[in-house]
Amino acid sequence: MNHKLTVFSLVIASLGMMACYANETTPSKQSSSNATAQQTNLASNASHRIEQTYQIEKMAQFNEPWAMSSLPNGKLLVTERKGTLRLFDPATKKLTRIEGVPTVAYGGQGGLGDVVVHPDFAQNRWVYLSYAEKGQGGTGAVVVRAELDLSQAKKPQLRNIKRIWEQVPKVEGEGHYSHRILFDDQGKLWISSGERQQFTPAQDMKSNLGKIVRLNADGTPVQDNPFYQQGGVTAQIWSLGHRNPLGLAFDANKQLWVVEMGPKGGDELNRVEKGANYGYPQVSNGDHYDGKPIPDHATRPEFKAPEIHWTPVISPSSLMIYQGNQFPQWKNKALISGLSSKAIVVVDIESQPVQEVQRLDLGKRIRAVQQAQDGSIWVLEDEAGAHLLKLTPKT
Ligand SMILES: [Ca+2]
Questions:
Q1: Domain-located, residue 2
Q2: 48 assigned to active site
Q3: What is the C-alpha radius of gyration for the chain, rounded to an integer number of angstroms?
Q4: What separation in Å is there between the alpha carbon of 299 and the centre of ligand 1?
Q5: Which helix (H) or strand (E) holds 9?
Q6: Which of 71, 165, 356, 380 is 20 to 30 A removed from 181 (C-alpha atoms)?
Q7: pLDDT per residue over 56-81, tens digit each?
């Protein structure tokens, strides 16, 4: 009898969570079949859900921000897509424009992209920026290294700008640059390079589009890269078959993870392995926007499948794996910012299978999420008038 009672309670609890979840989803453009799929996903996950509480403070406002990075002193570098780099001081909430940013190709999904700080910034003052540029054949992303001169507080500027990487080849169109940048604890530089909406380059080893690349801090390929002996841009490649990978992060075990936008359906969180092929455009758990089907991952086991995928999509725009202490329930979990989902999606990457455990419904397209030095969390909204938000534990 006790057993029956427990089962009955679980069913009621699951139904309650399903209903609760439906209320959290974005109201528009949700077809009933999609809603059913989502409820099915969440119903199976119901027992794993967490409810980490938080509070939100609006800190500043930006125009189409894309990325942010903390300096060792706690100030924040923030890029805006039209080509502006700003320095934000959380203590005074003052914003200062940084001079000397190269001209960017703004349009479509392109413009000024990511900004990261070299691990030895305190000594070398190096920051790295990615952006779209025009050139022969169309557009492509580049990464530059620059010295950030903060000696004049009112006129910070970039000096000694050196181009260290570019997408090959440049192509027509203004989408899927991806161009997220990340340093690992060995000082190696990782770049996510999207397939530029051209599909087949993701499988072409003579192109670095649709790849995750691994470089030395000066932009040269690393000697123990899986295809180093083949030379050219092939030497840069760490993994292939990616579509529009917009988030890169290492977990506590130094495992690299990447989130990428799927086509119509099939957003992915992938565990990135040396030399692995993630299958795009041969396989995807989504289909082409024109309705043409793409075989699912299960049909081609030679390609590495995502650890978790989403249909309906969440539109993942960045990834962090929380290592702080202010939000105990998020420790070692992936936080994925979402555009169409207007949310931060929390994923348990240690569980088998990997699963979504919480969704922070923020009501705005979210462009980036990043951990601050003190363990609080910076969140950047998307588009014009976007806020920089600070997430702290609920008091
Ligand atoms: Ca498919």
A1: no
A2: no
A3: 21
A4: 10
A5: helix 2-24
A6: 356
A7: 999 999 999 999 999 999 999 999 99
Let me know if residue 48 belongs to a domain: no
Q: Structure tokens of 28?
A: 């528009």
- 44 alpha carbon – ligand 1 mean position (Å): 22
In a 3-state reduction of DSSP, which class is residue 182? strand
Closest to 280 measured CA to CA, from 192, 353, 162, 220:
192
- Please state whether the peptide bond connecting residue 393 to the residue before it is cis, i.e. omega within 30 degrees of 0: no
Residue 64: both structure tokens together: 């189409």
| d(CA 260, ligand 1 centre) in Å | 15
Which DSSP state fits 95?
E
Identify the CATH number of the domain in which residue 88 sits.
2.120.10.30
Nearest one of 100, 127, 130, 99 to 113, comparing CA atoms: 130
For residues 40 and 33, the answer to whether their CB atoms sit within 8 Å is: no
**Over the range 157-169, which residues count as b (16 or more CB within 10 Å of their CB) and which as e?**
bbeeeeebbbbbb
Domain with 92, as residue range(s), is 55-392
CA 365 to chain centre: 13
Q: What is the pLDDT of residues 307-353, one digit of tens each?
A: 999 999 999 999 999 999 999 999 999 999 999 999 999 999 999 99
Please pick, among 3, 48, 118, 176, the residue that the annotation labels catalytic: 176
CA distances from 202 to 6, 132, 210, 292, 329 (A): 50, 19, 4, 18, 36
C-alpha 218: how far from chain center: 23
What is the whole-number distance in angstroms between the Cα of residue 247 and the centre of ligand 1?
A: 22
| Number of domains within the chain | 1
Q: Is 13 helix (H, G, I), strand (E, B) or coil?
A: helix
Q: Residue 340 falls within a domain, yes or no? A: yes
Cβ contact 162:102 at 8 Å? no
